[in-house]
Amino acid sequence: MVTKNILARLRKGLLVRHLTHLDPDRQEEKSAEKAMRVFHEACRTVPAYGDMVSRTLTPPRAVKTLRDFRERVPVIQKDFFSGNRLKSLCRTGTFADLRSVMVSSGAGGNGYSFGLTTQEECRRFFRKAGVLLDLWFDTSRKKTFLINALAMGTRIYTDLPCAETSVRPDSVLELIRKLKDDFDQFILVGNTFFTKEVLEQGIEEGIDWKNISMGLILGEDWFPEQYRSYLYGLLGRLPEEPKDALILSNMGTCELGLSLFMESVETVRLRQAFLRDPDVLRSVYGDDVGICPVLFQYDPKRIYVEEVAGELVFTKLDDINPVPLVRYRPGDRGRGHGYADRKST
Questions:
Q1: CB contact at 8 A, 312 and 332
Q2: Within 10 Å of residue 289's Cβ, how many Cβ atoms?
Q3: What is the pLDDT of residues 31-48, one digit of tens each?
Q4: Cα–Cα distance between 158 and 183 in angstroms, integer?
Q5: CA-CA distance, 96 to 69, in Å (whole number)?
Q6: β-strand 98-103 against 114-118: which pairing, if any?
């Protein structure tokens, strides 16, 4: 255990130093270059995608520049899944090294989408999740128990002790009662509004959250910054000084992957500044902004992000995922801010 914790702290330190010395502008350029390579590879190796492109773009080799990519490569959406066999969406048309398949909820009336994961991808996520959780919650120094309350069988690959309760507040609360004296902290991962239900029900049943170190990772639903302040109030903490109760949100989709976009302590502080001073908000998002949006960070080596007519369009850059989605539009509205934008505000 001691050796494992030392290695975890070492990995965290190496990651921080690596990120500190990266050239952000070059990372954005490399992300775009990789997106174009993924496009050409998908045309060659993915049967359904190659057929679709051949009908809409002739020839694919004409896409040589980033401008070509943005103007000529078609944008796809969920009907790409419903209109093709799942195997034909995969590299080489096979389920090589397949570990798991995740199915979307089908909400919105646009059909179902699917997320396929390989063994190697699970191993990589396992390592990355461990470093991120340590970065946010100091898990290499604190004895931590993770509660996965996500619905639909969503797995979290981590080396932390973990329980998968799905959306059962009573199960979550009973676990905390039984284990609160045996762990330094809990991390609850769940739907934005489910976590509120857990905390409120816990208070009704006599749990004093002030005496329990509880971190929250929220997903699935957008929330205003005042909502985070309300959750901190339930935990008996101040939003500006949460101490041992960090509340962060992240965003992912079934077909693109989990935790693609993440809040950090710094982005939360920015959002709190937007809430306190609307002029700061308008300086970043313009005069037409009506609400304070969620502000996420992402890894440009993992995904390439575009904004098309107010909607986000993504290209997956992982070279081991079975389904290399190119210019995929899941229906999320948003705006991208590059490093140059940050420097000018």
A1: yes
A2: 14
A3: 999 999 999 999 999 999
A4: 17
A5: 28
A6: antiparallel
Helix axes 119-137 and 2-20, enclosed angle (nearest 10)? 90
Q: Both tokens of residue 146?
A: 């993770």
Per 3-state DSSP, what percentage of the chain is helix, strand, and coil (rounded to 5)?
Answer: 45, 20, 35
Q: How confident is the model at residue 24 (pLDDT cuts 50, 70, 90)?
A: confident
Q: Residues for the chain: how many in total? A: 345
Q: To 5 degrees, how large is the angle CA 153–CA 159–CA 163?
A: 40
Contact of 77 with 330, CB cutoff 8 Å: yes
Amino acid at 100: S
**Half-sphere exposure in the Cβ direction for 40 (13 Å, CA):** 14
259-284 pLDDT, tens digit per residue, is 889 998 888 988 888 888 888 888 87
pLDDT for residue 345 is more than 50: no
- pTM for the model: 0.87
- Could you give the 3-state DSSP secondary structure of residue 261? strand
Residue 330 preceded by cis peptide, ω within 30: no
